[in-house]
Each structure stands twice: as C-alpha cells, then as structure tokens.
C-alpha cells in the first residue's frame, strides 16, 4: 500500500509539470479496460477464460468373458470364450441325472440315450441293449496306431457290432480314432473309413476323433493347434464328399487350446465331459457324459451319451 501511495504522488508531480507547459493535446480514445478480478490467494490478475467443454468419455469396452473349467484329470484351466462361435442354448437345470442315465427336456429340446463302443466291450447282446433303453450307438470303425509307424487298423468287432445294432433297430454312427500328423494322413484316414463302410447305410454321422495320448509318447505330440484343425477339416471334407455326414469329437481342452472353432462351425460336435453339467459354452449335438455306464448285454462299463434333439 505504501508503494501505491508513492506512485500516486509521482504521477501528481508529473501532471503538474505538464500543466505548466503548452497545452497537452487530447489523448486518443483508449481501448476498454480489461476486466479484473481479485484472487484472494494471488492478488490482482486477469480473469481466466472458461475452460472448453470436455469431450464425452469413450465407453469402456466390455471385458471378454472368461471360462474356468476342469479336464478329465481334475486339472483346472482358464480360457476366453469366443462370442462369435455358436453358443449352446441348453438350460443346465434341465439336465437330470438318475444313476448313470441322463435326460434333458425343455420347450425347445428333448434327449435320447445312447452309447459308444469298441472291441474293448467284447461280444455284445444287442437285443438286451435295445431292451435297456439304448436308442443309438457310435461304433469304433478303426484307428491309426499312435506309434511312429502309424498303421491303419480296422476294429475287429466293427462288422459284428454294425450288423447286431442295426438288426435291433438301433441307430448307428461310427468313429475313427485318429493320429494324423498332417492333412494327407487325415484324408488317408477318411478314405480308410469309407472303404470299410463300403456303402453301408448309417443313421448317424461319421466322427473324427483326433485323440491325444496322455500316458505315452505319441506321433501327434508335436502337432500344433493349427495343424490339428487343418487335419480335422481334411477328414470331414473327404467324408462329406463320399455322401456321409461328418462330425467332430471334442472336449473343453481341445475347444480352448487346439481347435480353431471359427473354422469348424459347419460341423456338428460330439462333446465329451464327465462333469455333472457340460462346461462348454459352445453348441453341441451329442454329449458323452460318462465313461462308467452299465447297460444290459454289455460286460463291464461303457461310455454313455445323450443326443439333444430339436422339438
């Protein structure tokens, strides 16, 4: 404040000196004064312009859904769910277990019970199997050895099982235990299956079962997911060209880490999972839900399946 008084006195002296001389010309019109405000913290300063309106924030993208699941050995995994792959529409509350039998029914779907078998079930009394409520069966038609040679082999019980099941009016499909390491071998496996069928009529698909071997060294140990998918497509295309419906045997580990499901959406899936409810979020036509079923006419245990049918 003292300094401001001193400045005022100085200005007054100057004015007096000017007034003693010639008449001072009139000052030009000044620009309007700048509007001032008092800022309590910083003293006198120019008024700050209003801040521009901020652009609306970008919406936060939704997090990709994640699935945690267990394999047949109890090991836990985590994977991102592919939302652009067809999702299953089944209601988990409609799967009903009664002992080793499973049923499903809602407004859109119903189920029927079936099994899958190979030489390891031995001789089967198909009349008793039919009487025990079994409506369909997938029969192993053959396999490729998982050793270095990779020989193709017919299941020695295939012909008997095909004839016995169809004589009882049980619907039949077949599966091939595959060990192809490239597309050429996958097509070779398909041609082998077609030759063994020799024009036989099937009620259900021909299934590609590209098994991994857990407790031994296998020729397919180093097959990548990309090759795994390419082999599957090669087999399915060859089967379709012969007039049969191809289908893919799968499980949640393969769907998460092996198959490129986006390339396989045209083929039905036979899904294997021994949990009480199917863990896959993806669509499937058949569910292999147990490997410890008991059916009249079969010695020992057998794999149990249901087919989901649109009403």
> Sheet bearing the most strands, described?
8 strands, mixed, barrel
Instruction: Give me the count of strands.
Output: 15
Q: Could you give the distance between the termini? A: 94 Å
Strand order of the largest sheet: 7-8-10-11-12-13-14-15
Order of helices and strands: HEEEEEEEHEEHEHEHEHEEE
Overall body shape = globular
What is the radius of gyration?
A: 39 Å
Strand fraction equals 25-35%
Helical/strand content category: alpha/beta
Provide the CATH architecture of one domain: Alpha-Beta Barrel
The number of helices is 6
Topology:
Elements: H1 2-19, E1 36-39, E2 43-46, E3 66-70, E4 76-80, E5 95-98, E6 101-104, E7 109-117, H2 126-131, E8 136-144, E9 152-154, H3 158-167, E10 171-177, H4 183-197, E11 206-209, H5 225-241, E12 246-251, H6 252-257, E13 269-272, E14 286-293, E15 302-310
Parallel strand pairs: 7-8, 8-10, 10-11, 11-12, 12-13, 13-14
Antiparallel strand pairs: 1-2, 3-4, 5-6, 7-15, 8-9, 14-15
Description:
The chain is of the alpha/beta class. The protein has a domain at 115-289: TIM Barrel. The protein is built from 6 helices and 15 strands. The strands form 4 sheets. An 8-stranded mixed barrel has the order 7-8-10-11-12-13-14-15. A two-stranded antiparallel sheet has the order 1-2. It has a two-stranded antiparallel ribbon with strand order 3-4. Helix 4 packs parallel to helix 5 (225-241). It is globular, with a radius of gyration of 39 Å.
